[in-house]
Amino acid sequence: MVARRIFLTVAALALLGGMLAGGVSRFMSTAAAQAMSLHPQTIRLTVHVDAGNDVWHKWTLNCRPSTDSTLPDTAAACKFLAKSGRSVLAPDPRTWMCSMIYGGPQRAKIYGTWGGKWVSENFRRTNGCEVARWQRLVVLLGTPWITSSASPGPGSSLVRGRVSLGPTCPVQQAGQTCEKPSIDALVTFSNGSDTATARASTAGGFQIALADGVWQATASAGMRCPVVPVTVPTSAEVVIACDTGIR
Fold first, then answer.
1. How far is the C-alpha of 12 from the C-alpha of 232, rounded, in Å?
2. pLDDT band for position 174 (50/70/90)?
3. Phi, psi dihedral angles at 6 (to 5 degrees)
4. Which domain holds residue 217?
């Protein structure tokens, strides 16, 4: 009888231990999942970008893990966001003075969760602050070109730029943009012996493959356009700001 009671007691303790172990295991799994969902590097975002032609492109970004992301160069994007913090998505303070330089018709929106908190922000390029904000997040939003698919060959490099027109209003009011992209402008490059041309898009952007060396660039838009020196290869944006003659 005593042996039977001891056996039953041992069995009961084993059963109780198993139940406790299972409960602890489930609790730890739940706690781990909750901790992961609140981790500051747990970033799950959706990125929509309209390059200026009312066609929206969509990408997803999932950091930690990032196996199902579609955003180009996910690793770089996750590293940048983790280093910068959630505030990098926030708009600039309304008290900032921004130059009224129009950067193009591109639009973007980013929404999702970051460290368990909902984020949702819109982006445009309507003034200097918004252009700089876009540039800070270029790893997410991309370079705002609407261009041809020119590809550089041996001894050549890709040159990107935009053509703008201004002023477009006789008197600039507060909050008004008096510069716009030059639609369909013909951009001409010359290096003294060769000439190459590119056509600006509806957003004023262009790209062209040029032989490495020194070139002069200008455009046919407005009343007159400056001649801009370009040394190829270059990573800088070639900006040709043409004058409308409006005064």
1. 81
2. low
3. -60, -40
4. 156-243
pTM over 0.70, yes/no:
no
Among 141, 171, 193, identify where a domain stops.
141
Q: Are 127 and 99 in contact (CB under 8 A)?
A: yes
What's the burial of 237, exposed, middle or buried (CB within 10 Å: 0-12/13-18/19+)? middle
Residue written as token pair 């929106």: 109
| Mean pLDDT of all residues in 143-167 | 71
Q: Which two tokens stand for residue 58?
A: 């969509």
* Among 197, 98, 80, residue whose Cα is nearest residue 137: 80
Q: How many residues does the chain have?
A: 247
37 assigned to some structural domain = no
Q: Which two tokens stand for residue 117?
A: 């908190």
| CA 228/CA 219 separation, integer angstroms | 10
Cα 215 to chain centroid, rounded: 30
Enter the DSSP assignment of 185.
Answer: P
